[in-house]
Amino acid sequence: MSERFLVVSATRAEAAHLPDGVPVVITGIGKTAAATATVRALAADPDASSLTVLNVGTAGALHDGLEGLHLPGSVLNHDISAAAIRALGHDPRELLTVPGGDETVLASGDVFVSDPAVRAELAKRAQLVDMEGYAVAYACAELGARVELVKHVSDNADESALDWPALVDASARVLGSWVRERVGRLA
Protein backbone atom coordinates (compact mmCIF):
# COMPACT_ATOMS: atom_id res chain seq x y z
CA MET A 1 0.00 0.00 0.00
CA SER A 2 1.40 3.41 -0.92
CA GLU A 3 1.72 6.22 1.55
CA ARG A 4 -1.35 8.43 1.87
CA PHE A 5 -1.12 12.17 2.47
CA LEU A 6 -3.32 14.85 3.98
CA VAL A 7 -2.15 18.44 3.71
CA VAL A 8 -3.18 20.68 6.59
CA SER A 9 -2.77 24.44 6.26
CA ALA A 10 -4.11 27.36 8.27
CA THR A 11 -5.17 29.53 5.33
CA ARG A 12 -6.13 29.19 1.69
CA ALA A 13 -3.38 31.68 0.85
CA GLU A 14 -0.70 29.32 2.24
CA ALA A 15 -2.23 26.41 0.28
CA ALA A 16 -2.73 28.36 -2.96
CA HIS A 17 -0.10 26.49 -4.99
CA LEU A 18 -0.54 22.92 -3.80
CA PRO A 19 -0.75 20.24 -6.50
CA ASP A 20 -4.14 19.06 -7.67
CA GLY A 21 -5.39 15.79 -6.24
CA VAL A 22 -3.83 16.10 -2.80
CA PRO A 23 -6.45 16.22 -0.02
CA VAL A 24 -6.26 19.55 1.82
CA VAL A 25 -7.79 20.75 5.08
CA ILE A 26 -7.87 24.49 5.75
CA THR A 27 -7.99 24.85 9.54
CA GLY A 28 -8.25 28.55 10.20
CA ILE A 29 -5.77 30.51 12.28
CA GLY A 30 -4.63 29.52 15.77
CA LYS A 31 -4.11 26.39 17.82
CA THR A 32 -7.75 25.73 18.68
CA ALA A 33 -8.93 25.96 15.06
CA ALA A 34 -5.97 23.85 13.88
CA ALA A 35 -6.48 21.13 16.48
CA THR A 36 -10.23 20.94 15.87
CA ALA A 37 -9.96 20.73 12.08
CA THR A 38 -7.11 18.21 12.23
CA VAL A 39 -8.92 15.94 14.68
CA ARG A 40 -12.11 16.17 12.62
CA ALA A 41 -10.24 15.13 9.44
CA LEU A 42 -8.36 12.29 11.14
CA ALA A 43 -11.46 11.00 12.93
CA ALA A 44 -13.30 10.86 9.59
CA ASP A 45 -10.60 8.66 8.08
CA PRO A 46 -11.13 4.93 8.74
CA ASP A 47 -7.34 4.37 8.74
CA ALA A 48 -5.80 7.60 10.05
CA SER A 49 -2.73 5.68 11.23
CA SER A 50 -1.77 5.16 7.58
CA LEU A 51 -1.79 8.89 6.85
CA THR A 52 1.12 11.27 6.70
CA VAL A 53 -0.12 14.74 7.58
CA LEU A 54 1.88 17.50 5.92
CA ASN A 55 1.34 20.67 7.93
CA VAL A 56 2.42 23.36 5.47
CA GLY A 57 2.52 27.04 6.24
CA THR A 58 4.46 30.19 6.80
CA ALA A 59 6.54 30.98 9.86
CA GLY A 60 8.32 33.94 11.30
CA ALA A 61 12.09 33.80 11.75
CA LEU A 62 13.18 34.37 15.33
CA HIS A 63 16.83 34.88 14.33
CA ASP A 64 18.11 37.41 11.80
CA GLY A 65 19.18 35.88 8.50
CA LEU A 66 17.07 32.74 8.89
CA GLU A 67 15.13 32.08 5.70
CA GLY A 68 13.90 29.35 3.40
CA LEU A 69 12.13 26.06 4.00
CA HIS A 70 12.40 24.11 7.26
CA LEU A 71 11.07 20.78 8.56
CA PRO A 72 11.10 21.32 12.33
CA GLY A 73 12.04 18.30 14.41
CA SER A 74 10.61 19.82 17.59
CA VAL A 75 7.59 21.99 18.24
CA LEU A 76 7.01 24.02 21.39
CA ASN A 77 3.67 25.28 22.74
CA HIS A 78 5.08 28.65 23.75
CA ASP A 79 2.04 30.25 25.35
CA ILE A 80 1.18 27.69 28.01
CA SER A 81 2.21 28.09 31.65
CA ALA A 82 4.20 24.86 31.56
CA ALA A 83 6.14 25.43 34.79
CA ALA A 84 2.99 26.18 36.76
CA ILE A 85 1.17 23.15 35.34
CA ARG A 86 4.18 20.95 36.10
CA ALA A 87 4.24 22.34 39.68
CA LEU A 88 0.63 21.20 40.03
CA GLY A 89 1.76 17.68 39.23
CA HIS A 90 0.73 17.49 35.57
CA ASP A 91 2.76 17.11 32.40
CA PRO A 92 1.88 19.95 30.00
CA ARG A 93 3.66 18.19 27.09
CA GLU A 94 4.74 21.59 25.83
CA LEU A 95 7.55 20.19 23.66
CA LEU A 96 6.87 17.52 21.06
CA THR A 97 9.40 15.71 18.90
CA VAL A 98 8.57 15.34 15.21
CA PRO A 99 10.34 12.23 13.88
CA GLY A 100 12.25 12.84 10.66
CA GLY A 101 12.41 16.60 11.11
CA ASP A 102 15.51 18.75 11.06
CA GLU A 103 17.16 20.53 14.01
CA THR A 104 14.78 23.48 13.80
CA VAL A 105 12.56 24.19 16.80
CA LEU A 106 9.18 25.72 15.94
CA ALA A 107 7.36 27.70 18.63
CA SER A 108 3.58 27.70 18.20
CA GLY A 109 1.10 29.89 20.01
CA ASP A 110 -1.98 31.98 19.61
CA VAL A 111 0.06 35.18 19.75
CA PHE A 112 0.74 36.78 16.35
CA VAL A 113 4.37 37.71 16.95
CA SER A 114 5.23 41.16 15.66
CA ASP A 115 6.74 42.64 18.84
CA PRO A 116 10.57 42.62 18.94
CA ALA A 117 10.57 41.92 22.71
CA VAL A 118 8.35 38.83 22.29
CA ARG A 119 10.53 37.74 19.37
CA ALA A 120 13.71 38.06 21.44
CA GLU A 121 12.24 36.00 24.28
CA LEU A 122 11.05 33.24 21.94
CA ALA A 123 14.42 33.22 20.14
CA LYS A 124 15.98 31.81 23.33
CA ARG A 125 14.02 28.57 22.78
CA ALA A 126 13.25 28.32 19.07
CA GLN A 127 14.23 29.38 15.56
CA LEU A 128 10.75 29.77 14.03
CA VAL A 129 7.28 30.80 15.20
CA ASP A 130 3.81 30.02 13.87
CA MET A 131 0.29 29.66 15.24
CA GLU A 132 -0.73 26.09 14.34
CA GLY A 133 2.16 23.59 14.13
CA TYR A 134 2.00 22.42 17.74
CA ALA A 135 -1.74 21.79 17.56
CA VAL A 136 -1.47 19.76 14.35
CA ALA A 137 1.45 17.71 15.74
CA TYR A 138 -0.41 17.09 19.01
CA ALA A 139 -3.60 15.98 17.22
CA CYS A 140 -1.61 13.63 14.99
CA ALA A 141 0.23 12.13 17.97
CA GLU A 142 -3.03 11.54 19.81
CA LEU A 143 -4.71 9.87 16.81
CA GLY A 144 -1.72 7.89 15.55
CA ALA A 145 -1.02 9.71 12.28
CA ARG A 146 2.48 10.63 11.14
CA VAL A 147 3.16 14.35 10.79
CA GLU A 148 5.71 16.46 8.96
CA LEU A 149 5.87 20.16 9.75
CA VAL A 150 6.86 22.10 6.64
CA LYS A 151 7.40 25.81 7.27
CA HIS A 152 8.63 28.55 4.97
CA VAL A 153 9.96 31.78 6.46
CA SER A 154 7.73 34.65 5.36
CA ASP A 155 8.94 37.37 7.73
CA ASN A 156 11.11 38.13 10.76
CA ALA A 157 8.35 37.93 13.42
CA ASP A 158 8.73 41.65 14.03
CA GLU A 159 6.97 44.67 12.55
CA SER A 160 7.54 43.11 9.10
CA ALA A 161 5.08 40.34 10.04
CA LEU A 162 2.28 42.82 9.49
CA ASP A 163 3.15 42.66 5.77
CA TRP A 164 2.26 38.94 5.76
CA PRO A 165 -0.64 39.33 3.27
CA ALA A 166 1.82 40.67 0.68
CA LEU A 167 4.45 38.01 1.47
CA VAL A 168 2.42 34.80 1.74
CA ASP A 169 2.20 34.02 -1.99
CA ALA A 170 5.97 33.67 -2.35
CA SER A 171 5.98 31.19 0.54
CA ALA A 172 2.95 29.35 -0.88
CA ARG A 173 4.81 28.78 -4.14
CA VAL A 174 7.78 27.19 -2.32
CA LEU A 175 5.45 25.09 -0.15
CA GLY A 176 3.48 23.92 -3.20
CA SER A 177 6.67 22.89 -4.96
CA TRP A 178 7.87 20.99 -1.88
CA VAL A 179 4.55 19.12 -1.56
CA ARG A 180 4.58 18.29 -5.28
CA GLU A 181 8.06 16.76 -4.90
CA ARG A 182 7.24 14.96 -1.60
CA VAL A 183 4.03 13.39 -2.89
CA GLY A 184 5.55 12.71 -6.32
CA ARG A 185 8.40 10.66 -4.86
CA LEU A 186 5.91 7.94 -4.02
CA ALA A 187 3.59 8.21 -7.03
The largest sheet, given as strand count, sense and whether it forms a barrel, is: 9 strands, mixed
CATH architecture: 3-Layer(aba) Sandwich
Rounded mean pLDDT score:
95
Q: Identify the CATH homologous superfamily.
A: Nucleoside phosphorylase domain
Q: What would you note in describing this structure?
A:
The chain has one domain (4-184): 3-Layer(aba) Sandwich (Rossmann fold), CATH 3.40.50. Helices cover 31% and strands 27% of the residues. It has helices at residues 31-43, 82-87, 116-122, 133-143, 164-184, and strands at 4-9, 24-26, 51-61, 69-70, 72-77, 95-97, 102-108, 128-130, 146-155. The radius of gyration is 16 Å and the shape is globular. The chain starts with a strand and ends with a helix.
Produce a short descriptive summary.
By secondary structure, the protein is an alpha/beta fold. The protein is built from five helices and nine strands; from the N terminus they run ββαβββαββαβαβα.
